[in-house]
Amino acid sequence: MITIYKTVGTELQQIPDFEPGSWGKVCAPTHEELDQLSKRFDIHPDFLTDPLDVDERARIEREEGVTLIVLRIPRLDTYEADVPFTTLPVGIILADEIIITICALDVDVVSDFSKGKVRNFSTEQRTRFILQLCMRTSLLYLKYLREINRLTNIVEKDLHRASRNEQLIKLLNLEKSLVFFQTSIRSNALMLEKLYNVKSIRMDPDESDLLDDLIIENRQAMEMTSIYAKVLNGTMTAFASLISNNLNMVMKSLATITIILMIPTLVASMYGMNVELPFQHTEYAFPFVMGVSLLLSVMGILIFWRKEIV
């Protein structure tokens, strides 16, 4: 789907066709729409299809007067999904005094611009539009990182009460999200550093300052991702060790109980043999056997207790 916007005065309006200074929002496009854009603005087909690949890395590429910027943005799936947080590429194309954003899904970072949630946004200021889009991406990374940290704390509390595979799988999925974030933020950082040298993107002093702030925000997101990844990895290792230790304690307790129960079983088995046994003709044979079994069992318990096995 292709939706075209243009800033008229201070308001963002939807227009029927492309005009100089307009913005085309392309979301989940069809092959016909891609062919239409490629032929009309002389855009290489790869510039339109590459951002639709979920594994496409962040980069800047220029060919025949058209500039492609691929930015990886964070995306929140439902909490029921295997991995709650993933990343997705968004393509930004500069061609013929227009700007086009293209993505496989309708993502919040781009939709906020079309819904008028971004202040000081103008479709005619293409460079500022790119920087604002990158800035909101970095801020969204920071927001989702805090959410990952909150979810990690909740799962940790559940693990303190009862160690279950479900909680460990949740931690593993959150760790996968951090790996996706770390890889995408690092590639975004390399792309942002190249913005200084792109001739088709001219910046005034305010936009240069905005780019400097953007690089700082992106670096902060990268550091937070690295810290959270290390903390989460340490947490999973610690809980894995605790689960293994708890299993050892349970097995040791079961072995101790088995040994204690084996003592009266052994005595009863000996007196169950079909041979002459001591005291078998006395009326106190049964209490005697039970007393010996109880005495030996208590002695076994005391021995294990002194050795701190039970």
Write structural notes for this entry:
The protein has 310 residues and is an alpha+beta fold. It is 57% helix and 16% strand. It has 2 domains: 2-244, 2-Layer Sandwich (Beta Polymerase, domain 2); 253-306. It contains 7 helices and 7 strands. The chain has a 7-stranded mixed sheet with strand order 2-1-3-7-6-5-4. A hairpin with an 8-residue loop joins strand 5 (66-76) and strand 6. It is rod-shaped. The model has no long low-confidence stretch (mean pLDDT 82).
Estimate the mean pLDDT confidence. Answer: 82
CATH level-1 class of the largest domain = Alpha Beta
Question: In the residues, how many domains can be counted?
Answer: 2
Put simply, the count of helices is 7
Give the name of the CATH superfamily of the largest domain.
Answer: CorA soluble domain-like
Calculate Rg over CA atoms.
34 Å
Q: H/E order of the elements?
A: EEEHHEEEEHHHHH
Strand content: 15-25%
The CATH topology of the largest domain: Beta Polymerase, domain 2
| N/C terminus separation | 69 Å
Largest sheet descriptor: 7 strands, mixed
Structural class: alpha+beta
